[in-house]
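Subject: sequence -> structure tokens, single chain

Hey, anyone have a minute? Need the predicted structure for the following. Not urgent.
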Amino acid sequence: MASRQSLGSYLKAAFTNRWNLLAFIGAGVAGAISPIPDVVLPLVIAAEMLFLGVVATNPRFHRAIDAAQGAADAAAGAETMRTRFDQLYRGLDPKLRRQFEELRTRCFVLADLAGKDPEAAALGIDHVAKTQLVGVNKLLWVYLKLLHTRMTLERFFASINTDELDRVEREALRRLGELPKDAVDPLSDKKRKSVEDTLATVRARRENIQRARENHDFVTLELERIGAKLSGLAELAVNRQDPGLLTHDVDDVARSVEATEEAISELQVYTGLTAADFEAPEILSAPQQQQRVRA
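Reply:
Had a minute. Here:
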């Protein structure tokens, strides 16, 4: 439902309506060249103010403006999501891009069934395919984000020099061992704290790397799970199975990715994905039903 606009927005919409502008300007010009412009022009302005007051407070006019603004906002939002999809898709390595394309191609059968196949419509799959395209789009969007997440994690792993990390740790332990254990002078105490801080940093880095590897394993498992589920849904649609089963499976998988979305959000430091990337763009779209032309 479109949100209500302010009174100022309704007044602006009423005033900038092309028919109102044409009438107002025409009446103003006619009044200006009339024998009594000092009488006609105030009447034109008064009539315009009355028109704006009546129209800008009319509920039907409000609904029309709200609907138009809602459609404009929806179009802008869809374009923003499409741009974000292109950024993530084109940012994938060629191998991962092919992997996504293979899965998306298998899912196109659901879009094809939505409005093109009379047999599917007779079995009820046509309606199911249309209503569940949103769920399939969601799954494909999560799949794309998982591919992006795995790619960024693997780039992070490639940037890690474990030999250097081991060297820093060994050197810090050596220096710590060389410091007098019972020293009480301020300089020795500062040295000890500095070395201990270095060791704490190394431990924190190792823990961070380990968490990243565990997240990478989880992302890989989720990619396999969602890919298998989407392939199964496409096969289910092609084989004209029970539409209710298809609906249940799509809903079930779509709900199951909530935890996956949370895991992706926790990896924002690696992926750059934000809360704005939660909404799924229209990766698949149902073709328009072909209209029959009567002779």
